[in-house]
Amino acid sequence: MPRWLRYTIVVGIAALVIVLMLSFRRDPHDIRTGTVNKPAAAFTADKLDSTGTLSLKDYAGKVVVLNFFASWCPPCKEENPALVRVWERYRTSDVVFIGIVYGDSTEKARAYVSTNGVTWPTVQDEDGRIAFAYGVFGPPETYFIAPDGIIAGRHIGPIDEATLVTAIDGLRPKATR
Amino acid sequence: MTRERALILVALVAILGATGWSARPHDATAAERVDRITSELRCVTCQGLSVKDSPAASARQMQGLVVQRVAEGRTDDEIRDEFRASYGDWVLLSPPASSWTGLIWLVPIVALAAGLVVAVGRMRPGAPSVAPPSAGELAVLRERVAREEALDLPQADGAE
Description:
The structure holds two protein chains of two kinds.
Chain A: H1 3-24, E1 44-46, E2 53-55, E3 63-69, H2 74-90, E4 95-101, H3 106-115, E5 122-124, H4 129-134, E6 141-145, E7 151-156, H5 161-171
Chain B: H1 3-22, H2 30-40, H3 57-71, H4 76-87, H5 102-123, H6 135-159
């Protein structure tokens, strides 16, 4: 085997090992592709409680926690107590939670909301357009939108209280109201 | 030319003509465009299937969005880019041969080329590793071979 080829193979294997090492160090819940660090997609959708519509632009200047969920999704139920606790902690401040129903019927989502103590505004994403605009793979997924309207972070899978608080507090000093 | 050959020729011409006619460039219909785009997009919940082939609800919703965008007059690239903006190049079943994703296409070609170089190198007859024998050495060798052949002849005859 020529010497240059031997060196090329060794360098290639070393590069592969480095790439794999760097990849395995990343948090699999925090996939920074697609919409992260870009302006959050604007949307207007029907509220689940039939009290009208909700627009993301109404919450400009606030920290917005966007949570995609469904009643058929066990990890959504798993993360819900953490969401409820953090919501109770921040609900009177400059932090807004918005629940977005993903791939679920309105009736089942309403039942889920009432039995699981979801008191933050929730909207129905009938045709999946909101989920596609944010790059959702499946519920639960949570997006953190900074007061300037940029998606600052994304969490795939059930989220815990510490992750929520850390993400929210990291964005709060920027809030303008 | 026999009659059979003439018939075969006519049939071949007919087949080629029909194939060429069906493959002629033409403006794709909206349904054809939806089929083409959804076969290139990855179903985001099943991952191994295209949007066109997946029975998942999210794939049907993606297809619905593609249908709407085609009806709105968006180009294929604009529709693909809308999904790429949300999901990155991952959402395309065949990643574009540009930027880092180009490596996906390049690495197998480079590996194949390197393998060919190694294979050709192994097949090529190697250069002589020792110097040719001198005239004196050749004479000694010939004498030795002749002696060994003389010794082997009776045994070879006996074996026959």
